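Quick one, probably user error.
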């Protein structure tokens, strides 16, 4: 399964907010655009339309918020320690998300019989944020600024990378 594009809405709940506002917001969202997941004050939606509907609910209640595009990684993705700067595991659903504008997703493929994909992956390891297997291929996530570096490493070992695009 390729990463799935999801849509986050980070709420900035005001200090000293009126009692029950959280309950009112959650009730309204449950009717119009229920989130598929949550991480503290970050609500996660399956579509941009739901994200925008939720934003309208927040505005009606005077709650500032910020939109984020997220990538939902498959279960079992192997996270590196530096991943926490680029994503998170949700507190509610335990799912793994990365900020879409911060990561470069790709698969590594051999270009011929002389290719050394295992050596390329070994060289790339220090730059990886996460990896997972998909259809027998290793899929990798690196910092968005590392795309050219990953391509150069792949070429040096007779391989090529294919960027992944998220579903949705």
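Nope, works fine. Designed sequence:
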């Amino acid at each position: 399964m390729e990463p799935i594009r999801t849509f986050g809405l980070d709420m900035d709940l005001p200090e000293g907010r009126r009692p029950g506002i959280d309950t009112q917001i959650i009730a309204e969202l449950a009717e119009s655009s229920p989130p598929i997941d949550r991480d503290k004050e970050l609500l996660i939606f399956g579509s941009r339309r739901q994200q925008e509907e939720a934003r309208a609910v927040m505005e009606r209640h005077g709650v500032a918020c910020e939109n984020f595009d997220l990538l939902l990684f498959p279960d079992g993705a192997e996270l590196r320690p530096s991943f926490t700067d680029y994503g998170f595991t949700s507190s509610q659903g335990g799912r793994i998300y990365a900020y879409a504008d911060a990561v470069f997703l790709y698969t590594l493929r051999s270009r011929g019989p002389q290719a050394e994909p295992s050596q390329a992956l070994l060289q790339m390891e220090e730059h990886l944020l996460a990896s997972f297997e998909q259809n027998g291929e290793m899929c990798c996530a690196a910092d968005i600024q590392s795309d050219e570096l990953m391509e150069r490493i792949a070429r040096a070992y007779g391989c090529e990378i294919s960027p992944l695009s998220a579903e949705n």
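The CA atoms of residues 43 and 89 lie 13 Å apart.
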